[in-house]
């Protein structure tokens, strides 16, 4: 995993307490506290979640102050900790998706996050119900018109610096800036105003996985107490705000929240990761031959990184005389010259990077050297939902759909360029402890999910499963990825 954020931060001698010991409430006491928290959530009228790095550790993202945290290891001279997945492939935890369920049910009114991993947005928390106090490593902002761009790659800089891209809203063209704060940067006023407003309105502020040490963010929950509200802290370490809290729970956040959701009889929705890419087809026709090109690239620009595709294999199954190609350098581009009167079917095999649950998918493209008339534009949210439904129903990923097909400007009258934007489901995660659907019970009546067979997609993509145990003392498992 890239921990570039921690490495890019300017040096600061005093980052607060690090290497903090972890505490675990005894099982019986923990269960009592979980039941009390469930009752508090059930009765709340304005629930606000205040989240820190501890809700993302089960996603493979190290925290900062724990025994193996980023700043703890740096303080010991051990450098940045290693992780098993690229930062951009991190998937939401049980806690992330439980917050989504609570928001959709109208219980959770707002989320305040100190994290920069974009997992709240990825999980489905609406942007208007989220304050990202320290920014987002995947979000760029236009300083002129305020437009925001959420990327599928980690933005190159931090500290509100200019990035290589420009704003495309209403032809603004201003240079974009990253949104991640460095030590000396002030918290964004818009995010702070919303956070303060909701904390003042809150009857319960649920602090999850945060040591509550970084000011001024750590003082936000106290605004609820002044208005008669209550604070609940779920964290493995002690915090400076423990004495102000109505309830302090020392336990793994995922385990606590899963227990709460079970008591409330609320389903934690599965997570389906949808990624986007585009295929740009160009053709310049002469009297007999056509020079054509195919490029697989990011929807954020032809020069932007496309992190989830490792390589592209190009083949011509109906034309064995044409040489196949393996494209390994981004943007993945191939140029050929063919006789104009002979259409050709091109097959693109997209090989996915580590962290995707399927290894590849294949797309067929007919190249007929004629101008297309079937340009389309589909509602993105509708396409995404259909892909999610299909992925969950089939219990496998790799399904894709065209979102948009349009004509691009071409350099010559005899040339044409088309762009096709695709959406593809690259991961599915079912969260253990809550059934995916009634259909899954029918699939495995005894509830032994671990005995399921590996599923195969139609083109041969293997959809794998993995399990991450929350801790040795509990049988509950975090996720199953298909």
| Fraction of residues in β-strands | 25-35%
β-strand number? 24
Poorly predicted runs are: 434-482
Query: What is the structural class?
Result: alpha+beta
Helix content: 10-25%
Helix count, DSSP H or I runs of 4 or more residues:
10
Largest sheet descriptor: 8 strands, antiparallel
What is the general shape? elongated
Structure description:
- By secondary structure, the protein is an alpha+beta fold.
- It is 20% helix and 30% strand.
- The chain contains 10 helices and 24 strands.
- The protein has helices at residues 4-8, 27-43, 70-75, 94-104, 119-123, 189-201, 222-226, 253-263, 380-394, 438-443, and strands at residues 47-51, 108-113, 130-132, 139-141, 148-150, 162-166, 175-178, 204-208, 230-234, 247-249, 271-285, 289-297, 309-315, 325-327, 332-339, 344-352, 360-367, 376-377, 400-408, 415-431, 455-456, 462-463, 467-471, 474-481.
- The strands form 5 sheets. Strands 11, 12, 15, 18, 19, 20, 23 and 24 form an 8-stranded antiparallel β-sheet that branches.
- Strand 16 (344-352) and strand 17 (360-367) form a beta hairpin.
- Helix 2 packs across helix 8.
- The longest helix is centred in the N-terminal third of the chain and has 17 residues, at 27-43.
Write the layout of secondary structure elements.
Layout: H1 4-8, H2 27-43, E1 47-51, H3 70-75, H4 94-104, E2 108-113, H5 119-123, E3 130-132, E4 139-141, E5 148-150, E6 162-166, E7 175-178, H6 189-201, E8 204-208, H7 222-226, E9 230-234, E10 247-249, H8 253-263, E11 271-285, E12 289-297, E13 309-315, E14 325-327, E15 332-339, E16 344-352, E17 360-367, E18 376-377, H9 380-394, E19 400-408, E20 415-431, H10 438-443, E21 455-456, E22 462-463, E23 467-471, E24 474-481
Parallel strand pairs: 1-2, 1-8, 2-3, 8-9, 9-10
Antiparallel strand pairs: 4-5, 4-7, 6-7, 11-12, 11-20, 12-15, 13-14, 13-16, 16-17, 18-19, 19-20, 20-24, 21-22, 23-24
Helix pairs in contact: 2-8
């Amino acid at each position: 995993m890239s921990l570039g954020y921690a490495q890019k931060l300017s040096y600061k001698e005093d980052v607060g307490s690090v290497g903090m010991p972890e505490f675990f409430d005894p099982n019986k006491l923990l269960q009592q506290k979980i039941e009390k928290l469930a009752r508090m959530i059930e009765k709340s009228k304005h629930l606000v979640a205040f989240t820190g790095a501890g809700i993302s550790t089960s996603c493979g993202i190290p925290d900062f102050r724990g025994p193996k945290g980023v700043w703890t290891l740096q303080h010991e001279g051990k450098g940045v900790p290693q992780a098993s997945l690229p930062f951009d492939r991190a998937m939401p935890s049980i806690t992330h998706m439980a917050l989504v369920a609570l928001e959709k049910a109208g219980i959770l009114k707002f989320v305040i996050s100190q994290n920069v991993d974009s997992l709240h947005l990825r999980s489905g928390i609406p942007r208007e119900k989220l304050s990202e106090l320290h920014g987002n490593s995947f979000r760029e902002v236009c300083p002129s018109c305020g437009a925001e761009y959420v990327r599928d790659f980690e933005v190159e800089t931090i500290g509100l610096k200019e990035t290589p891209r420009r704003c495309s809203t209403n032809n603004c063209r201003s240079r974009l800036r990253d949104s991640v704060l460095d030590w000396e940067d002030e918290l964004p006023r818009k995010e702070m105003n919303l956070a303060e407003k909701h904390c003042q309105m809150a009857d319960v502020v649920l602090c999850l996985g945060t040591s509550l040490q970084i000011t001024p963010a750590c003082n936000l929950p106290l605004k609820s107490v002044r208005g008669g509200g209550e604070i609940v802290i779920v964290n493995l370490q002690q915090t400076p705000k423990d004495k102000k809290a109505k309830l302090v729970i020392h336990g793994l956040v995922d385990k606590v929240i899963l227990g709460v959701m079970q008591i409330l009889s609320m389903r934690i929705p599965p997570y389906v990761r949808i990624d986007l890419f585009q295929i740009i087809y160009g053709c310049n026709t002469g009297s007999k031959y056509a020079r054509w090109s195919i490029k697989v690239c990011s929807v954020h620009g032809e020069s932007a990184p496309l992190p989830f595709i490792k390589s592209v294999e190009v083949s011509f199954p109906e034309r064995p005389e044409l040489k196949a190609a393996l494209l390994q350098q981004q943007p993945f581009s191939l140029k050929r010259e063919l006789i104009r009167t002979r259409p050709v079917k091109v097959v693109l095999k997209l090989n996915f990077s580590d962290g995707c649950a399927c290894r590849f998918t294949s797309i067929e493209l007919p190249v007929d050297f004629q101008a297309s008339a079937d340009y389309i534009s589909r509602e993105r949210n509708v396409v995404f939902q259909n892909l999610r439904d299909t992925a969950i129903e089939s219990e496998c990923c790799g399904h894709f759909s065209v979102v948009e097909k349009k004509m691009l400007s071409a350099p010559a009258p005899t040339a044409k360029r088309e762009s096709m934007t695709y959406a593809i489901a690259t991961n599915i995660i079912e969260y253990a402890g809550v059934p995916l659907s009634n259909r899954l019970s029918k699939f495995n009546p005894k509830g032994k999910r671990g005995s399921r067979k590996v599923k195969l997609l139609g083109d041969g993509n293997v959809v794998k499963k993995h399990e991450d145990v929350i801790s040795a003392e509990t049988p509950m498992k975090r996720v199953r990825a298909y």
